[in-house]
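In response to the reviewer comment on reproducibility (Comment 2.3), we provide here a single inverse folding case reported in full, input and output, so that an independent group could reproduce the run without further information from us. The structure tokens appear first.
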């Protein structure tokens, strides 16, 4: 503001010196024109917005003018006194900080982290834990932070959410179902699929035109042998009440302490995950390519092998919640792939992992 005031005062001084060398007639005409312009501007602007430098210059010029000429200026004595009072009040005004000082973001983050990682901890326990780390904060402050972030008190924070409960139960669940495929010669063949609900690992157990009791029982033995190699044991097998599942099918899994859960009659939603897998296989594979026999359908599997492991490691990242909260799909050896956060500057280069029949289904991964 001081630099602006000095510059405008210098400009005004040069203007005054220039006018001293003019004739009185030219000055009179210029003054008359300026007065008329000021009168026009006064009719358009009720209260002009003045900067502090403008107020200083007008105050200095107003003191130089004689008494009668001061009446024509829009700056009146009351205006000058008001400006002076504002300057005095501003000089004695100091910033006031009322209330408690704000809690730092680091402390807020630590409080929320301790509350989420330890559901049984209350406000006092969190306060004491922060004190051991050298962070001094009151219990009421911890309470207000948790309430502001929507974190419930300790008794209501101890129980798992529905999502956590369902994910924990899915680790021991396997579902299976039959579905049919019609060939070009109008012959119906049957496909038996299994899916692990926690990893979404699909196993194409077998394809046959005659699902006899011996064939279904042998498929059950093969799948039971594969499931026994899991680190997490399978507790439940979900299936519908199809007559193609004989009693020997259930006895094979009961021998491995796997409980059979039969869905209600005509209730496909009770086995929703497996029904969705069946729909995916129909849309992306069998409905796009017509086969003449069961042998041709076996060749249509997404990965080689015998009927027991026709689809051993097909990952379904689009299943469930459409893959928004899932990591990279499983590798052919069964271990999860690691996501590569690096993205090339020239764009993303993709390479197909494997191909389905006639190139209908592909798996893609980013390479350098």
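Designed residues, in position order:
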């Amino acid at each position: 503001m001081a630099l602006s005031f000095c510059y405008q005062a210098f400009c005004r001084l040069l203007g005054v010196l220039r006018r001293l060398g003019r004739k009185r007639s030219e000055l009179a005409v210029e003054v008359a024109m300026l007065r008329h312009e000021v009168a026009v501007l006064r009719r358009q602007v009720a209260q002009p917005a003045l900067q502090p430098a403008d107020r200083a210059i007008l105050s200095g010029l107003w003191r130089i003018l004689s008494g009668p000429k001061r009446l024509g200026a829009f700056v009146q004595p009351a205006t000058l006194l008001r400006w002076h009072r504002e300057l005095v009040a501003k000089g004695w005004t100091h910033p006031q900080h009322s209330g408690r000082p704000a809690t730092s973001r680091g402390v807020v983050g630590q409080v929320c982290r301790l509350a989420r990682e330890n559901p049984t901890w209350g406000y006092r326990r969190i306060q004491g834990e922060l004190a051991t780390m050298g962070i001094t904060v009151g219990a009421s402050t911890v309470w207000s932070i948790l309430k502001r972030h929507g974190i419930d008190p300790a008794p209501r924070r101890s129980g798992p959410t529905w999502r956590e409960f369902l994910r924990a139960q899915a680790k021991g669940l396997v579902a299976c179902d039959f579905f049919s495929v019609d060939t070009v010669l109008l012959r119906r063949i049957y496909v038996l699929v299994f899916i692990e609900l926690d990893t979404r690992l699909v196993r194409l157990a077998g394809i046959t035109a005659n699902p006899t009791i011996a064939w279904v029982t042998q498929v059950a033995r093969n799948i039971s042998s594969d499931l026994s190699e899991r680190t997490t044991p399978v507790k439940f097998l979900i299936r519908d009440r199809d007559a193609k599942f004989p009693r020997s099918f259930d006895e094979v899994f009961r021998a491995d302490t796997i409980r059979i859960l039969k869905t209600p009659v005509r209730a496909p939603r009770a086995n929703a995950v497996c029904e969705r897998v069946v729909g995916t296989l129909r849309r992306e594979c069998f409905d796009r390519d017509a086969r003449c026999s069961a042998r041709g359908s076996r060749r249509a599997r997404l990965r080689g092998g015998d009927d027991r492991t026709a689809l051993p490691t097909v990952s379904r990242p689009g299943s469930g919640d459409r893959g928004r909260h899932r990591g990279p799909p499983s590798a052919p050896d069964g271990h999860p792939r690691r996501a590569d956060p690096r993205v090339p500057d020239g764009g993303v280069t993709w390479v197909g992992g494997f191909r389905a029949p006639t190139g209908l289904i592909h798996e893609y991964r980013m390479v350098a």
